[in-house]
Structure formats: structure tokens, C-alpha cells
């Protein structure tokens, strides 16, 4: 995503703690305190401008959602959307995914969405990919047992890399399609990047995966 300096973004983020957590000091977040209920929590890591998670939260009032994005200049676009019509089951969180184990409790999250994650094609940047093994370890820490990761992308190299990482990490891939828009998957909600890339004719890949239980 192209990054531009957005004047006043940080100030706006800091002025709306009821809609967005600006987690500069990585302090722990208590879901019960944030949502005032103990409904399941689903998160999207790298949500960009938040189109997908906003639509998901509107459709599913019995699930709590947290949209995570690391850049002020991008998350402020999601914040503007939420400010127009806040949803009581949606909270935004500005943080880098790598810090999530300091912020969320172990086995507290019911689902993780990774949508059109940055592909980081250069080998020296492999560790930054959100499906690299260190991130899988982090997701294992966060997810309640048997909970799913939902991953979609138009980038075949990233998709194949992710399958390999997940297999090496001993995960079970529970669903896989190499053409989501012509598949049997029901209820797909398009993300911003998905709309853009599928309009260009790109095929969309999707998988869901769970961590195998330790014996
Ligand atoms: C290519 S965009 C996709 C946005 C959106 N998910 C979509 O499908 O339209 C990837 C987003 O992930 C964010 N991102 C990448 N690495 C991240 C990290 N480690 N922590 C939080 N956000 C991250 C980027 O800033 C960017 O906004």
C-alpha cells in the first residue's frame, strides 16, 4: 500500500480511544473491558483501510472484531469510516503484528484473517512476511485451540511460500482454493486489494489452516 504522510493522523488517532487503541507502549488489552462482553474475538492483521473488517463486523454482531494496522497514515482511513458509523463490536488497533503477544493474552483469539499481506518478494525480507514461521508461532500463542487462520492473496509466490511454512510448522490446511471467486467457498467478502486486483484479472488464492494439537 502506498504510504503518504497524512497531516493530523496521529492526533486524530489519539483523540478517539473509544474507537482505536494506539498501542505505543504495548500495554495488555483486556477484551472484556474493551467490548463489555465475552463474545468471540476475530482479528485482521494488516487490515489497511478496513473495508473488509468493517463489512464483517456489520454482518456479524455476535462476534467482536479487532482490525490491526501498523501505519497511522493508513489506519486513519479506517478510523474515518468507523467515526461515520461506529460499530460496538469493532475496535481498531494501531500496532505492529510482531508485538501482539505482549498485547493479547495467550489463547484469547478465535480467528485470524490475513488478507493480501505484503509479499516481501526479496529473500532478505522473508522474515517480514506475515506467514513466516516466527509469525506462525505468534499466531499459535494467540489462537484458541482448533481456531482457524484465513489467508487470501493474489500473489502465487506468497501463497506457495505460506503453504510450505504452514506444512513445516505442522499445521493442517483445512481448505484451499487456487481460484476463490470460482470456488465453492460461501460468503466471501472482498477486501480493498481483492477488488482492485480481481478487476485487473488476477486470480485470488485462499486457504484456511489450524494448528495441529501437540501430542
Ligand atoms: C497490501 S495491504 C492489504 C490491506 C487489506 N488487508 C486488503 O486486503 O485490502 C497490507 C497491509 O498490511 C499492513 N501490514 C504489513 N505488515 C504489518 C505488520 N507487521 N503489522 C501490522 N500491519 C502490517 C500494511 O501496512 C498494509 O496496510
What fold name goes in the CATH topology slot?
Rossmann fold
- The appropriate CATH architecture is 3-Layer(aba) Sandwich
Q: Span between N and C termini? A: 41 Å
By secondary-structure content and strand pairing, the structural class works out as alpha/beta
Task: Write structural notes for this entry.
By secondary structure, the protein is an alpha/beta fold. The protein has a single domain (31-211), classed as Rossmann fold (3-Layer(aba) Sandwich). It is 32% helix and 24% strand. It has 8 helices and 8 strands; from the N terminus they run H-E-H-E-H-E-H-E-H-E-H-E-H-E-H-E. The chain has helices spanning 9-14, 31-35, 51-59, 72-84, 100-103, 133-142, 156-168, 192-199; strands spanning 20-22, 41-45, 64-69, 90-94, 109-115, 143-153, 171-177, 205-211. It has an 8-stranded mixed sheet, with helices on both faces. Strand 5 (109-115), helix 6 (133-142) and strand 6 (143-153) form a beta-alpha-beta unit. The longest helix has 13 residues, at 72-84. The protein is globular. The chain starts with 8 loop residues before the first helix and ends with a strand. The mean pLDDT is 95. The structure holds S-adenosylmethionine. S-adenosylmethionine (SAM) binds at residues 1, 45-48, 68-71, 74, 96-98, 115-118, 191-194. Residues 1, 45-48, 68-71, 74, 96-98, 115-118, 191-194 line the site of S-adenosylmethionine.
